[in-house]
């Protein structure tokens, strides 16, 4: 069962980035966020930037 409050989002996100750079060989990382919670955690708190031209609104 999925539960909130484990504070696992950031470590898992960083692990995904590490995999992309080191294993897949990507050269740039432009994050997209599927929820306001993710946007709030990674953009507002960490100063992460999205690719220019993408909307941050959720549907």
Main attributes?
single chain; 59 residues; mainly alpha; 0% strand; globular
Write structural notes for this entry.
This protein is mainly α and 59 residues long. It has helices spanning 9-24, 36-44.
- Helicity, as a percent range: 40-55%
State the low-pLDDT regions, or none.
Answer: none
Query: What class, by secondary structure content?
Result: mainly alpha
Radius of gyration equals 13 Å
* Outline: globular
Supply the number of helical segments.
Answer: 2
Number of DSSP E strands: 0
Biggest beta sheet summary = none
N-to-C span: 25 Å
List the helices and strands and how they pair.
Elements: H1 9-24, H2 36-44
Brief digest:
This protein is mainly alpha-helical and 59 residues long. The protein has helices at 9-24, 36-44.
């Amino acid at each position: 069962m999925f539960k909130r409050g484990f504070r696992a989002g950031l470590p898992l996100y960083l692990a995904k980035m590490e995999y992309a750079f080191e294993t897949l060989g990507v050269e740039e990382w432009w994050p997209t966020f599927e929820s306001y919670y993710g946007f709030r955690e990674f953009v507002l708190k960490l100063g992460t930037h999205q690719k220019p031209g993408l909307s941050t609104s959720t549907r």
